[in-house]
Design a protein that fits this description.
It contains 15 helices and 17 strands. It is of the alpha/beta class. It folds into two domains: 135 residues, Aspartate Aminotransferase, domain 1, CATH 3.90.1150; 255 residues, Aspartate Aminotransferase, domain 2. The strands form five sheets. The protein has a seven-stranded mixed beta sheet, sandwiched between helices. Strand 11 and strand 12 form a beta hairpin. Helix 2 packs antiparallel against helix 11 and helix 4 runs parallel beside helix 5. The two termini are 37 Å apart. The protein binds ligand C6P. The site of ligand C6P has 17 residues, from helix 4.
């Protein structure tokens, strides 16, 4: 059991008010709040050893470089990678997925296929779509069933010898569904394709072991896992990363340059062109320390209990529709819903007046919204600092909105 009252004390923002109400932050799928240790780690860098990495021989640069490299090591251990060279720092999950789309598809031929799912965030759809148009590649989509889960029989029929890449979200940012990416990786590998996992949501909520998942690539952002914005990571199997061409070119990613040619640096520098997000990498490193201290297993089981309670309470509200699995198994702490007679944006605004932050809209998943037959929804997403009182407050405020709208 997590001690939520103690955990809350680590997050300065949670002590604040919104419209004269205590803040209840339920927009964690968009971004998480940051513990004091992350804020302090970044401030310490700027106050005590701010310098560029990998370029200077002076003390500050040495310290900054050490911390920056340690961040790679910590992230590698956190997700069970073999070594720090398998961790490429990017701006966010979106940039990591763009990196993959451009570098992996470069060598593909017209007519070859990429398999995605109907529940992808735009960040794991648009990059593949755009490169597919350019190269004449074919995109196919694994269906989402009535149970809000991937149709694995459909996946089996889609993944064939023409398939070169399978890319799926690990946890849907709308449905909360946790996808069987290990199974998908098996199917992909059986056909000689590579498996990409969009771990933007799962990284913050589940213990991740990329070796166990046997995915070839795993992309995520720091800001959803208590870290700062401006830093994300791409895990890739070393043998694959070594064979891939760089994505961005410039300083920091080279070994030797002449006027007409360049030899590239070793991993991970080969994929980290330009001055990286140093303070952000140090912040991410502190976020990993914090999550490890609490324990990812403990966070996952806390959220399971919370989501069970939230599903029970919310589904008791007349006129509510919840988009996502009913049961808590293989389901994350995200609940997308609509209340009959209230536009999701109006609902989110009313909740905000009560100090409750939720998201409303299409959640960057327009094709999924079409599949569900809606334009958008409200979405409450929970994390380690939320508890049943937050759920009760949400349910109470929805009740007040219903009275206001006579819904
Ligand atoms: N979803 C949400 O409110 P970035 O923006 O690069 O940090 O993450 C992109 C991304 C990729 N995949 C999934 C499954 C995601 O949920 C997100 C981000 C946020 O749902 C912002 S739109």
């Amino acid at each position: 059991m997590l001690n939520v009252a103690e955990i809350k004390k680590d997050f300065p923002i949670l002590d604040g008010n919104v419209h004269k109400n205590n803040l209840i932050y339920l927009d964690n799928a968009a971004t998480s709040q940051k513990p004091r240790s992350v804020i302090t780690a970044m401030t310490r860098y700027y106050e005590q050893f701010n310098a560029n990495v990998h370029s200077g021989v002076h003390k500050l640069s040495e310290l900054a470089t050490e911390e920056y490299e340690r961040a790679h090591e910590k992230v590698a251990r956190f997700i069970g990678a073999h070594c720090a060279e398998e961790i490429i720092f990017t701006k966010n999950a979106t940039e990591a997925l763009n990196l993959l789309a451009y570098t992996l598809c470069k060598r593909l031929k017209a007519g070859e296929e990429i398999i995605l799912t109907e529940m992808e965030h735009h960040s794991n759809l648009v990059p593949w779509q755009q490169i597919a148009k350019e190269k004449g590649l074919i995109l196919r989509f694994i269906r989402v069933g009535k149970d809000f889960r991937l149709d694995l029989d459909h996946a089996r029929s889609l993944i064939t010898s023409k398939t070169k890449i399978v890319s799926s979200t690990h946890m849907s940012n709308v449905l909360g569904t946790i996808n069987p990416v290990k199974e998908l990786a098996k199917l992909a590998h059986g056909r000689g394709a590579v498996m990409v996992v969009d771990g933007a949501q799962s990284i913050a909520h589940l213990p991740i072991n990329v070796k166990d998942l046997d995915c070839d690539f795993f992309a995520f952002s720091g800001h959803k896992m208590l870290g700062p914005t401006g830093i994300g990571a791409l895990y890739g199997k070393k043998a694959l990363l070594e064979k891939m061409d760089p994505f961005l070119f410039g300083g920091g990613m080279i070994r030797e340059v002449t006027l007409h040619d360049t030899q590239f640096a070793d991993l991970p520098a080969k994929f980290e062109a330009g001055t990286p997000s140093i303070a952000e990498a140090i912040g991410l490193s502190a976020a990993v320390d914090y999550l490890k201290k609490i324990g990812m297993e403990a966070i996952a089981s806390h959220e399971q209990e919370l989501i069970r309670y939230a599903l029970k309470k919310l589904s008791g509200i007349p006129g509510i529709t919840i988009y996502g699995p009913n049961e808590t198994v293989q389901r994350g702490a995200v609940i997308a819903f609509n209340v009959e007679g209230i536009h999701p944006h109006d609902l989110a605004s009313i909740l905000d007046r009560h100090g409750i932050a939720v998201r409303a809209g299409n959640h960057c998943t327009m094709p999924l919204m079409n599949r569900l037959g809606i334009n958008g929804s409200a979405r409450a997403s929970f994390y380690l600092y939320n508890d049943v009182h937050d759920v009760d407050a949400l349910v109470g405020a929805i009740g007040k909105a219903k009275t206001l709208f006579k819904a």
